[in-house]
Amino acid sequence: AAAAAKAKALASxxxxxxxxxxxxxxxxxxxxxxxxxLEDEEGLTCMVCQEGYKYKPNEVMGVYVxxxxxxxxNVYAIEGTAPGVGDGGEASSxxxxxxxxxxxxxxxxxxxxxxxxxxxVSAFNTIHLxxxxxxxxxxxxxxxxxxxxEGATLRNSRCKCxxxxxxxxxxxxSDVFALAIERHFGNVGGxxxxxxxLLHDMRLLALRIAHQENLRDEVGGGSLSxxxxxxTYQLQLGLHLMxxxxxxxxxxxxxxxxxxxxxxxxxxxxxxGSSSSSSSSSSS
Length: 284
Hints:
The protein is an alpha+beta fold and 284 residues long. It is built from 13 helices and 6 strands.
């Protein structure tokens, strides 16, 4: 009777009787079996809950970024141009359609460049927007309250941040993602269209990487690979905006598409020409 009672008690805990009547680990607890059956999360994961789009496919994730508004002189320095250069120069004559889109190429946009353009950098730490909001609420309730991004900076490996660039997931609803987009552009500011602001943000980051700027100094962390990753998800967001924004900025989208196509076509032609030239030189 005692042995039967012991066996019943062990069974209720997910364990069985071992050899010789002792308690043994013949059967694993149910919770352990369930944990072992879970597959590892693949891809991006939230730095708080450690889950991503595999186990939370409906929740928007974002990457912490630090966006800085630019003065005209900053834009000129990054572009490698100077005020009053106009449309001259080798680059502008080779790709006029693309260069005409640069804000420093027109006198009207020069006046607004500091108000409309931003440049973003990142240490590429990702988090669910819901997890960020819960953490921000907890930060506000501390004995010494922290602001939203003051607390986020601590979570972001102590790298400065002031927004969350949203990352679209396979089952995120369009309405939820649209709210995340509005939230991001509300944080970074600017009075241009979202698409234009994002496109120039990508362009300026690519130029800064090409010029080998030390982006770590700006936020206190973040590597070259972190910012290259950021570019890929800025591109994802840009494509989303291009496909979904059917309002007043459609003509602007078309201009950018045509300019980019002209740039790519010209680059391909130039490469083909140089290859044929090299072949001719080799044969001669």
